[in-house]
Amino acid sequence: MNGGSLGLRTGSYGLLQNINGAIAGGGISKSLSNVRKSSTKMLSVIREKERPLPNAWYRYMGCRKFSMLLLIAFALLVFALGSFVVNKDSTSPNVLQRIGTLGIVPYVNGGHHEASQILGEKDKKKDENRFQIPAFKGASVLPFRHPCVNFTFPPPPPPTRRRLGPRPCPVCYLPVDQAIASMPSSSSASPVLHNLTYVLNENPIKSEPHGGSDFGGYPSLKQRNDSFDIKESMAVHCGFIKGSKPGHGTGFDFDESDLAELQQFHDIIVASAIFGNYDVIQQPHNISEEAKKNIPFYMFVDEETEAFMKNRSILSSSKRVGLWRIVVVHNVPYSDARRNGKVPKLLLHRIFPNVRYSIWIDGKLQLVVDPYQVLERFLWRQNANFAISRHYRRFDVFVEAEANKAAGKYDNSSIDEQVDFYKKEGLTPYSEAKLPITSDVPEGCVLIKEHIPITNLFTCLWFNEVDRFTSRDQLSFAIVRDKIMTKVDWSINMFLDCERRNFVIQSYHRDLLEQMPPPVPAVVRRPPALPNTRGKTPGKRIPRRGRDRRSGSSRHRKAAASNRDRNFF
């Protein structure tokens, strides 16, 4: 396939269509000569007809033609100006941004984000070079101009049009074979940090009033601060504090057969989790045969979810449900199912020590785009090693904290304690002064990651904040990111939330699905039954007379009325 494939989802803000026209050679000159001949003949005929006309009539026709020409010229001028205005708006950095730039104008209920950004000439050159696919070592393609380089978002709907909630927007994906060919053959360079190891402690002791757990090891505030001092070699707390290796006597334990499989090498994995029987398994769609063959899909579940699946005959001894390979977790470290879900979400690099790339999706999401295409679009094309979507509406931690309290996501005192702690550390409300950082609040249900030391450190320290404070990882994301970015030249690709909604479909949690009424069955309308003509011989109809005719017509009216009533219902 040549060119990029356009990912479109129902409810998008618009469609982009490639209009390709080809004119066969040789037919143009011939058609033009025919047009000239026919126009010359028509002109001569018109002149012959005009000769006998009176002079006044001729002047009237001339004025009329002149006025028509003026009207046509004016219409063309208006059309050209309108096209220029539309084109100018469509390429304005405050409305649309080229794929790969850092514009922060997501679709939010038909409105625009308040912040804006003007890229410098250096950033523009860097952005243009980003679309030049390099000849990676071992890649099977030559350098070529990226098919999605000219892709732009369609304009959002007018503000007068009512939009209910966030919607997906178009995304330009490479065909699967080209996406596979663009995968780098070697890992990205990790800035400063090259060797990352993890703290082990068989008897962790809580020494400070802040939270924490035996699973996380209760790192002190001094150890926490030291972990943000990036060096070439580091040892940090990163869960699994006990035991010889993750999943073996550490809490969050796996069966021996699963442990052996989790140690295997894979270029790419897709992972998700359901704890507390909280969600319904969503099967991925539109997955290529190459991905089904080479990319394993792992679903982590606790014993409660496993028991439910077995009782419903969803899970058998094969440990497979569709594309998902089920991994049962024993001895979960937390009583809160949502906090248990943060372990595989943020610590996949510890569970899968021999994996290059991972895509994490929450259990309520359904993946509907091939993993190769997702990685090419959000990591490889951007020269990034970590990608996450920003929140579709909120981009300030303090606003996010208030929204969490209003929605009852966590107890208010714990949220206030966490935010006050970050405020003392220097966290400020988001403003344009933070650009090119486009948001402080992620929509953290999808993580796209290359497993290298710097990204592994980031998710370790992010997990430590979730372990120490509340499980609302949106609140702790920005403080960890900003502390690392002040030490090393590293950044995160925070893409639009409408782009995330293009490749995953969000479902409801199980408790909400069970509360919903069953769907109303569709009403099948059947045509009225044909009259019974058995036993009657076809032929000329004999008209009735007198009483027979009146009674017959009365019966006919009653039958017609009953048929109308039946059709109405």
Automatic annotation (TrEMBL):
Signal sequence coordinates: none
Keyword Transport: no
Biased composition (Basic residues): 537-559
Transmembrane segments: 66-86
Pfam families in UniProt: TOD1_MUCI70
Record region (Disordered): 519-569
Presence of keyword S-adenosyl-L-methionine: no
Domain of life per record: Eukaryota
Keyword terms of this UniProt record: Membrane, Transmembrane, Transmembrane helix
InterPro entries, per database record: TOD1_MUCI70, TOD1_MUCI70_glycTrfase_dom
Residue ranges occupied by any TOD1/MUCI70 glycosyltransferase-like domain in the UniProt entry: 196-509
Protein's UniProt name: TOD1/MUCI70 glycosyltransferase-like domain-containing protein
Organism for this UniProt entry: Gossypium armourianum
